[in-house]
Amino acid sequence: MFSRAFSKIGLLLAILAAVFMTACGGGSGNMGNPTPIHMQISAPSTYGPVRVEIFGGYPPFHIRTNSSLIQLPEKSDSRVVYGFLYPCTEDGVGAVTVWDDLRGSPYYGVTATFETIGIPYEPSALTVTAGPGNCTTGSSGDYEQICAGSQGVANLQLNPNDPRNENQWVRFSVVLGDFEIRDVNAGTWGASATMITDLNRGAEVAIRVRPDAQTQVARIRAELESGGFLEASFIIIGAQFRMLPTSASWTSTGTTCPSRTASFSLFGGTPPYTVQTTLGSLSASSVAASGGSVVLTVAVCGSGELTARDAVGNEARAAISYTASTSTEPEPEPPVPAVTITAMGSWGTSSATGRVSCALGAVFNFTVAGGVPPYVGAYVSPIGSTTETLTGPVGQITFTAAPATASTNFTVYAVDSEGRMGTRVIYCQ
């Protein structure tokens, strides 16, 4: 009786043991009891390749990070996984969590951390400065002035906190204007010059304006090896005394001539200047320095002339004309043009091959026109990856982080003083 009972108990224990081994994988012959997972992470403190080696557990492994700046595959059949750490602007702690199918959830996985050192963000800038002995000092509004036959310097300053900006190739080139460039120390004057950024993450070239250059707006560009470019404008002051524009005219759609205004700027010659008009009124009768301006207001129909004289008697003239229509219809208010954003350089296209790099530090320049100035701001959507600046009609978008998702479109908005909005899209890779 007892032997029969023990026989039944033995059979029951054998069945339970078989069930237990199957549930834990013991009966498969290749998994056994689950072993603890641990890992070793090799990662830089600022940016660069990341290596994760996984011990224990059973492939495939599931991987999760605490930041989009730590790029690792979400799943791996290998115990050695490679990825990349992208730079951020503040110090922090990176975390990597790994689990396998037996554990079934990151809550039962293991997490390893490592410290990261942020790279403080400072916007890049390209500036033009007139050299010593220039015929004028100061600037005209936001633009530096360099006189015909004189020299200056174009200085590019990248984020000095980012080590990637050291020893980067930069190609400077003439975009617009009668000037040449070269290395500040030596070299041949020409339309372009290639430099390498120094320990301070900067580079510069010398500028030489041709002696016979007339007064004009000039522009220089700096193209970065890492992608993107910056541009800076300046004003070339010709030796000849000039007034710009050289004329102003309006045509009324009614029988009267409502008030209209035009701005005239004076360049070159020998300041100070005196200004007078035979039609309308002026905001001032004199201009102290080259690049200064006066505003003409005309509220009557007719024709006349604006005359400016420099200190030694040189004259510059502008024709003025305001014509009324024979129509009896009242003069309508002139339509307000739409706010438009014009890209300075390529912002890409929607095609797969036409997209542009929006890596950390990429810069996109633009100008705003239309609407009713002043322009109150520039904004980008989606938010969080860029900083925006808008000084008068000139703006700049700088990427402070690479887009988290490939082929992302960023919409740039510019708003005028009455709330009108213009948009343009940056097509990122």
Structure characterization notes:
The protein has 429 residues and is mostly beta strands. The chain is 5% helix and 46% strand. It starts with a helix and ends with a strand. Mean pLDDT is 84; it is low at 11-31.
Helix share, percent? under 10%
CA(first)-CA(last) distance? 81 Å
What does the average pLDDT come to? 84
Shape: elongated
How many β-strand runs?
A: 34
Main sheet: strands, sense, barrel: 6 strands, mixed
**Strand composition percent:** over 45%
**Major sheet: order of its strands?**
10-11-18-17-13-15
| Contiguous uncertain segments of 5+ residues | 11-31
- How would you classify the helix and strand content by structural class? mainly beta
Q: State the helix count.
A: 1
Summarize the model shown:
The chain is mostly beta strands and 429 residues long. The protein contains 1 helix and 34 strands.
Label this structure with key terms.
6-stranded mixed sheet, 429 residues, mainly beta, 5-stranded mixed sheet
List the helices and strands and how they pair.
Layout: H1 2-24, E1 38-42, E2 48-55, E3 61-65, E4 70-71, E5 75-76, E6 80-85, E7 92-100, E8 110-116, E9 125-130, E10 139-140, E11 143-147, E12 151-157, E13 169-176, E14 179-183, E15 192-196, E16 202-209, E17 216-224, E18 229-237, E19 242-244, E20 247-251, E21 260-267, E22 273-277, E23 281-282, E24 286-287, E25 293-298, E26 302-309, E27 315-323, E28 340-344, E29 363-369, E30 377-381, E31 386-391, E32 394-399, E33 409-415, E34 421-427
Parallel strand pairs: 11-18, 20-27
Antiparallel strand pairs: 1-2, 2-6, 3-5, 3-7, 4-6, 7-8, 9-12, 10-11, 12-16, 13-15, 13-17, 14-16, 17-18, 19-21, 21-25, 22-24, 22-26, 23-25, 26-27, 28-29, 29-32, 30-33, 31-32, 33-34
